[in-house]
Amino acid sequence: MNNKTTKIIASAIVFIIYIAYQFFTTGELPNLGGNNSPKSTKNTNAPSKPKSFGSDAAILADLQSKKLIYTKHAKCRMDCRTISKNEVLDVLENGRINHRKSEDQGGECPTVAVEGFTDDNQEVRIIFAQCDRVTKVVTTIDLKRKYNCYCE
Could you tell me whether strands 123-130 and 111-117 are parallel, antiparallel, or unpaired per DSSP bridges? Predict the structure, then answer.
C-alpha cells in the first residue's frame, strides 16, 4: 500500500470509530451536515434523553474535583439502605453514568446518575448534583431491593 492509501484507510477507521462512539453514547447517529440529511430521525414517542453535557470521564472528573456535600435526604437514604460515604466515593470513582436517569435541566446544578456496586455487592444508583463549586449527593438508590425509608 502506498502512503496515500494508508492515510485514507486510517481516516476511514477514525471516522467509523467516531460514528460508533456517538451512537453508543447518545443513541443517535450524528448529523453530518448534508443538505439531504433528514431534520430528525428521532422517534418522537421514545423517551427523550438528556442533553449531553460533556464526556463521561470529564463529568466524573468534575464531580470528583469538588467538595462533596450530602443533602439531608441523601443521608437518610444512605442510612436506610446501609450505604456508607466510602461506598458513595467508590461508586463516584469507579461507576458509570446512566444518561437516561441524568438530567441537564439548564439550571445551576444538572443531575448525574452514577451506577455501580458497593462493598457488600449492592447495585446502586447515586444521584449527584453537578454544581459550580460543590458536588451534592442528592439520593442513593438500591437497584435490586426495596426499602421502607421514611425520609422527609
Answer: antiparallel
129 within 8 A of 109, measured Cβ to Cβ: yes
Question: pLDDT tens for residues 24-79?
Answer: 666 666 666 554 444 433 333 333 333 445 688 989 999 999 999 999 999 999 99
Predicted model pTM: 0.64
Alpha-carbon separation of residue 46 from 24, 26, 38, 96, 132 (angstroms):
16, 13, 18, 23, 32
CA distance 99 to 113: 7
Q: Name the grid cell of 6.
A: 494508508
Q: Which domains does the chain have, with CATH numbers?
A: 1-48 (no CATH), 56-142 (3.30.2310)
- Which amino acid is it at 75? K
